[in-house]
Amino acid sequence: MKRSRRELLCRAGTAAVAAGVTATAGCLDVAAGDGPQGPEGTPETLSCPDEEFVRLEAPFEGPVESRTVRTDDGDGAGTSLELSAEGTAETYGQSLRLVLRNTGDGSVDTRGEYAYSIQRETGDGWLDVRGSTTGEAVGLPREDDTLEAGDTYSWSVDLEESAIASAVSDRDLSVCPPLGAGSHRFVYWGILEAPPVGVEFDLVG
Fold first, then answer.
1. Top-confidence residue, 116 or 31
2. Which CATH architecture has domain 54-204?
3. What is d(CA 98, CA 83) in angstroms, rounded to the nearest whole number?
4. Disulfide engineering: 192 pairs with which of 97, 109, 176, 199, CB 3.0-4.6 Å?
């Protein structure tokens, strides 16, 4: 299992201090929140005790394509796109790096770089881990954009609650319940004339 830099430094500091009881107590306090604190495995659903929390609804219907997708402009001359990630498992607190690339020859109209969902697999299906903290439902920013042939969107998603919540500007979002070890996916749904495309990954402690 990967260990956080905080934990490794803490262990080193403990070994170096002669009066180890005091040092060890401090390390336990610091390291207590290092890992994912939410439900593990595949929970039945995602529940939040905050009555003002309104979970983001998926702005798409139907299946999500895995990694590659092709546009359909009606005359059979669409173009292809590929969503790639560095791995299929990542440690809580580390960065998940993703790239969406237009691998075809034509341009692709999109809804911008924020048109994505971060979802958790549950018994109720895939649910976004984020929601509004205002008591009212909100939508994610959408802007008219174009990916020319060879162009990319890239994301570095820090797998930690506050970082995920603050990644989208001008929205009061929160992650609730806290992230937990289990199956997640990143879905980009902003490609016009094409279904959403996603990458699944396991969040580990």
1. 116
2. Sandwich (2.60)
3. 7
4. 109
Nearest to 166 by CA among 103, 126, 118: 118
Q: Where are the beta strands (DSSP E) in the chain?
A: 54-55, 65-66, 68-70, 80-85, 89-91, 95-102, 108-110, 116-122, 125-128, 130-132, 145-147, 152-158, 173-175, 182-188, 197-204
Higher pLDDT, 27 or 122: 122
Query: What residue spans define the domains of the chain?
Result: 1-34, 54-204
In whole angstroms, give the CA distance from residue 60 to residue 31: 39
Whether residue 138 has pLDDT greater than 80: yes
* DSSP code per residue over 103-136: -SSS-EEES-TT-EEEEEEETTEEEESEEESSSS
- State the Cα–Cα distance between residues 43 and 46, nearest whole angstrom: 7
pTM to 2 decimals? 0.81
Q: How confident is the model at residue 33 (pLDDT cuts 50, 70, 90)?
A: low
Mean pLDDT confidence for 99-122: 96
Structure tokens at 41: 């495995």
Buried b (16+ CB within 10 A) or exposed e, 113-134: bbbbbbbbbbeeebbbbbbbbe
Provide the pLDDT confidence category of residue 111 given band limits of 50, 70 and 90.
very high
Please state, in angstroms and rounded to a whole number, the distance separating the CA atoms of residues 199 and 167: 19
